[in-house]
Amino acid sequence: MPELRLTINGEAHTVDAPIGISLAQLLRETLGFTGTKIACNEGHCGACTVQVDGVPTLSCITLAHTVDADVTTIEGLRDHPLINAFVRADAVQCGFCTPGQVVSAAALVADNPSPTVEEIRHRMAGNICRCGTYPRIEEAILHWRD
Amino acid sequence: MARLIRTEKEVEGRFEEVWLVVEEDPLTQWPSGPQAVVGRDAVRKDGPERVRGEARYTADVQLPGMLHAAMLRSPHAHARVARIDFARALELPGVRAVLGPGEAKGLVEEAEFAGQPVAAVAADSLGAARRAVEAVDIEWEVLEAVIDPEEAVRRELFTMEPARYERGDPDRAFADADVVLEGTYRTSVVLHNSMETHQAVCEWVGDTLNAYVSTQYIWGVRDNLAEELGIPGDKVRVVCEFMGGGFGSKNGADEQTYVAAVLAKRTGRPVKCALSRREENIAAGNRNATIQKLKIGARSDGTIVALEGEYINAVGASGWSAMTEGPMRMLYACENVRTVRYGAKINTPPMKAFRAPGFVEGTFGLECLIDELGEKLELDSLELRKRNYADSNDGTPYSSKNLMECYELAQKHWDRRDDVRARSTGTWKHGVGMASQIWFGGGGPPSYAWTRVGSDGRITVVTAMQDIGTGTRTAMAQIAAEELGVPLDHVDVVLGDSARGPYATLSAGSSTTPSVGPAVRAAAADAKQQIIEIAAQRHDVAEDDVTIEDGVIKTADGTFAEPLSEFLGLLEDAQILGKGARGPNPAGMSVLTFGIQVVEVAVDVETGEVRVERVAAAHDVGRIVNTLGARSQVEGGIIQGIGHTLSEQRLHDPETGRILTTTLDAYRMPTIADVPEIVSEFVDQPDEHLTNLGSKGLGEPPIIPIAAAIANAIRDATGADVHELPITREEMLRALEAAKKKERRGAPAAV
Amino acid sequence: MELLRPSDLGSVDGGLPVHGGTEVVPLLRDGILEAERLVDIRGVVPRGIDGSTIGAGTTLAELEASPAIPDALREACRLAASPQLRNMGSVGGNLLQSTRCWYWRLKYPCRLHGGDRCHAKEGEHREHAIFANDFCASAHPSDVAAALLALDARLQTTQRELALAELYRLPDEADRRTTTLASGELILELRLPEVESSVYLKAMDRQRWSFPQVGVAAARVNGVVRYGLAGVAPVPWLATGSDALDAATPLPRTAWKVDLARALMARAAAQL
Q1: I want to staple C202 with a disulfide (CB 3.0 to 4.6 A). Which of A47, B55, C215, C253 is the partner?
Q2: Pick from B384, B364, B366: which is nearest to B376 by CA?
Q3: Which pTM value belongs to this model?
Q4: What is the CA radius of gyration of chain A?
Q5: Helix (H, G, I), strand (E, B) or coil at A123
Q6: Which of A20, A42, A57 lies closest to C88 in CB terms?
Q7: pLDDT in tens, B208-243
Q8: What are C171-200's pLDDT values in tens digits?
Q9: Chain C positions with Cβ closer than 8 Å to A
Q10: 3-state secondary structure (DSSP) of residue B316
């Protein structure tokens, strides 16, 4: 199986994986980064969002062998102030979409530490939450540094 | 003392008479309002692990040697397996075992909807299992399919006998009424779309089955599996520490769990069977569509004198026919009511409970009709509802009802309507609408909890319930902390494992807090009593003089006062163990939840775009345990309801019955950009007749009135009557066109 | 399966090109596309904006954020898909995306798949075409293509230079494809003329993350107003004025789209 070199959360990984494997499956099943969730597995819901060079990317439709850049998963964001902001705001119910929400939000506040409500809604619209925690997510991002 | 009672048990509006052993519950309720811990905002105890991606869901369970199962599903809406041959499939690499029709519960020989599973394969990888499924040689005998629910009713194809209800003399009352209005309303299929799909991982350890299942009811799954496999219940251990949403669709084992269990037995290896998103949106259940032919008769002062409804629940191939007529029977005082409800058996995917099944659908029709009556009589919507206020549930007293207080809370939001309407400019028309809500949600026995207090003064609550994301761990910890007089962070809650805790009820029917909460309080009180007994002996004081407050155990006169953790240090390895049980519901009373929502919308009358701008909700669910979590429940219910009101549409091919919108680009749930301002208020009065807690459930009530409130606001804004969900642009433009015609005929379109 | 990652155009030799993968990867998984060789073309397709020239590998997110881009294109990118898909998807790939027709996506043996009937016409078609829908009623979902059509964009491929309109063809009995791209031909660059003003309006059933029910781009180029419509025909649809809608041939359940398109075209014209 073709060898694959990836930098994940700042650490280099070298693994053998078949061509065609998605980044999400590689992260979850081969490398054990199960914080990244798969909910639709076809790029529609955002639960699998990771950052590739800081850019929110759908890992479930990303071919792992095409990734050269640094990957940041929720495991790499566990000390991010957004974590506490989400907890404080009750921006989590079942929690299955939440890691993906945090990954998207972390990229947003990196680009713009003081996003408006409109920007939050524009940049977070690719992360579906069936429990409907959206007002709380908005609040968490608005007050992420408090 | 244990007591055997005969009682009526309600789940999701379904009643059954059961024998129950209940324990007396001597605790008096806490006073209303915020207590030290209960009745206040509490952040989720398991928030950090969920947000950090550390919480382990069923989807994350990977066991050594685990195989993956995939199911072969019928491409036909109704067909029998004429011949099935696994030889080719079994030759493929990595394939370990196959199951044919009848070899696991849920694998059928005669498929009654397109997508029903008939066979399954276990293989080393999911990919290998799926390839093997495609390699199965199968011949189908295609049978006649009925897709249209009205045709099913004509042909008397039912999932259950028609349910008829009548009180008073509706015919005479309609004849005597000053005004009679009729309308036909349609609601559409809604897909649960839990973010974690239905899935199970099963492994056998000796003669015990360990089942990791994404479920709302670990005991239900345990019993389902035990019965199906013919083994004792305690030989099945069901684990669900974290689960990614259910909304009513995960109340039992279902085929993926049976398939995983049987394949695990066959192969001697752990087996995971997980539905894909597309399978989820076909076979995992749905809120069924309905057709409602409704009629209302009233006096000119707005008094409702007669109600009549013919309801068709398009149930699907299986499932139950929910009480869609419930709101018509229960929401308003009306002496003359007649309803009939047909559960149409059609060859489409089966319904499963979905957040207030029946009442969501029935409230849409009824509350739209009520507002159309108000328009006709030129009566204020809120006043009309107050005039028809019900003082009893058809003669049975309520354990508590504060709907009038909800109406009072709604008044200020309703008063905004002149300002809202005045915002209309150009093609954008603004309006305000409302709808009321009634629902069950009182829970019931049995449920149990244990408490364990260590010498460090920390309390662990153990109960084999599950947290489906509503914040159960937090609410239960608040209740225990309140009773024991300790800070919230001194309490942990262990749940989600049927082998490690006593029975607790399902997380459905808004029953978790009202069912398990009182058991947790009783278990905490039991431990507290023991601690007080020990303190009384240790310090030679009367038990009655000892209290625990804010983590300090003390007497009022100051004989002693020390942190509980220090006092309990004397225990060393000894522990204090408490137990508690849920007492009975009040006999001869109806335990119900109530509420009202006031919605502001904007409608672009040229493009049919509908925007929900603001929703104000006032609900009466007894005592609120976690005010923060309660607001989240209200918001979540409203947002989910906005989805099925405006954008979610499950479509099927009329010829084959196959579902066309199985992917999330086509089945469109709200995103963060669709969310209005939401204001949530609670009456927050404990139900004095209901348990030691006085709390009812809140999971379902907020989703019930939203669709009708939106439709009523649309009428207020545009004069258009919307009678069909979802209100897509297509439907909105059609309704606007119909309103124009109505106006041309001389009737004023807008009040 | 093999994956090649060439760094110069000369070494591209057959295989299925993948750029952002947002369309190709799911279609491969569904078996609608089949390939033994995948070619990651990100190393060979230009990316970035240089005056009026846009590299075909530029992502929608990059276009959305660029002040140099005409309003219609920027807005089409802003309202397209989801943030993550805009981050991943290239503008070249976007032009080549397939219809969202559920029958086609579910692999019904429809005309677009080489079959002999259009299942949507007789079945569920409320999101389908109002123009050129006799043979195949699918609707083209690209907001970006509608904008670029209105903007009169031209393309440079590995083989030719062409107007965007020439990239598309209506499927017919003899040839079911909806583009004229030859096997192995890659879109390299897009070129925009001088645009006086432009606008993109999109009707969807969520505020974000929906394919267009109807998308209307309008642009004034050299004093001439052009309209590009998304979601109304099997290919992006060029119109010269709102009277074009008089020629619409809606299906029973797509008549509402004609009214919607009419309203959006009038608004777009007013905003130019």
Answers
A1: C215
A2: B384
A3: 0.98
A4: 15
A5: helix
A6: A57
A7: 999 999 999 999 999 999 999 999 999 999 999 999
A8: 999 999 999 999 999 999 999 999 999 999
A9: 1-3, 5, 18, 21-22, 25-26, 28-29, 38, 40, 42, 61, 78, 81-85, 87-88, 207-209
A10: strand
